[in-house]
Protein: Alanine--tRNA ligase
Amino acid sequence: MTSTNDIRRSFLDYFGANGHTIVPSAPLVPHNDPTLMFVNAGMVPFKNVFTGLEKRPFSRATSSQKSVRAGGKHNDLDNVGYTARHHTFFEMLGNFSFGDYFKEQAITHAWTLLTKEWGLPPEKLTATVYHTDDEAFDLWKKIAGLPEQRIIRIPTKDNFWAMGDSGPCGPCSEIFYDHGDHIWGGPPGSPEEDGDRFVEIWNLVFMQYEQEANEIVGELPKPSIDTGMGLERIAAVLQGVHDNYDTDTFKALIEESGALTKTATDGEFKASHRVIADHLRSTSFLIADGVLPANEGRGYVLRRIMRRAMRHAHIIGAKEPLMHRLVGSLVSEMGGAYQELVRAQPLIEETLLREETRFRQTLEKGLKLLDEATVDLPEGGTLPGETAFKLYDTYGFPYDLTEDALRSRGLGVDREGFDQAMAEQKAAARAAWKGSGEKASDEIWFDIAETTGSTEFIGYSGTEGEGEVL
Ligand code: ATP
Ligand code: MG
Ligand code: MG
Ligand code: MG
Structure:
């Protein structure tokens, strides 16, 4: 079996041999980009190179970029544990052309690597193109010999990429692998596309146009290429398993979590073990890159992820803090490729232990309250937003933890009510705030808190009375 570490290497070597400079992953906290919570794609560290603001001594690059999608525009947190293919932390393999090669060579490279180097059967692969992109359609026919019914024209934004309202943009082409008809799901564009049968493995973005205020205003003088392939998804394919969580890296983590808690990993606690393994990776890599749990901003997203994992540790019956005991396995699996993980191991363990010890003190009380509050709710019922807020405020339950806890019971949460309760508490705190005497700076402080809150939902009051109040 080819290990995930070998697959990463093989991808970088392939593009390295084809004139690409191998660039190490950038840290998860974006450099100079306050608009973005975490790096969530391979192209992020190259944004300014694509727009021409920055120069590099090369025009082709390849990387395996650490990525987190647990908030903001790309939020896969809720999928974790429930689909075979989503993580909060994953590695995005990519090849980039900065005004160098374009569509034809990008498709040729992707096809050669997948079917020649790695030997995947062409009949298992399907490509999508943006509905108007005849050029890409024809290239898939010419280069890959794909039959027309396996080149699917998609009219939605899924196949049109843009950096923002202004800047480079262009059509994309996604490559899907068919895991077989024993798995539920349909081809892209079909009503069953959300199933796990056809899994998107690679996205090729053809940066071709210039956009201003959401309007295409012209062609880029030097079109560029940005691609992204999920390492864990291609590892599943190459290791002959359907599910990312059955690949070598995840198996090691899940087995360890099963062994430490003396529970089966494929029975009733299957989803919990997966959530724990996934969240262990995201939290550990975030801490290694300098994020620490906090009640606002990036640190709050980290805390949310940690607490969700810790609740699942509690579900499978862990009598003591669990997460910190799994870090060693993670370091064995991934420390070779990511030295920062090895360096930060003691800090990661300490942080997880402290957080889990504290959270466990309120977890049971909070869950009890949740049970009481839902005992009379019918199947499909909704928990009042105020109760969700109380759980947040008193017991440190992030909103999505409450949502996740109810989901398995077929219950929902009243998000609007929650937001309203939060807003009311903020207003009360604002009124009570005596301030430092410098009104302007106090106003700014609250404004910052509120703008961050509107996109990322910050913790507002110190949940454990630790004076972390904004
Ligand atoms: P999906 O439609 O499956 O959510 P996407 O279109 O949002 O994926 P892209 O933004 O195109 O993903 O990212 C490029 C590649 O990164 C995808 O083709 C996929 O292989 C991988 N990827 C994206 N999101 C995740 C995730 N949450 N976990 C693991 N791999 C991912
Ligand atoms: Mg997605
Ligand atoms: Mg997609
Ligand atoms: Mg995609």
User: Anything to note?
Assistant: The longest strand covers residues 215-230. Residues 41, 69, 76, 86-87, 90, 92, 200-203, 228-230, 232-233 surround adenosine-5'-triphosphate (ligand 1) (CB under 6 Å).
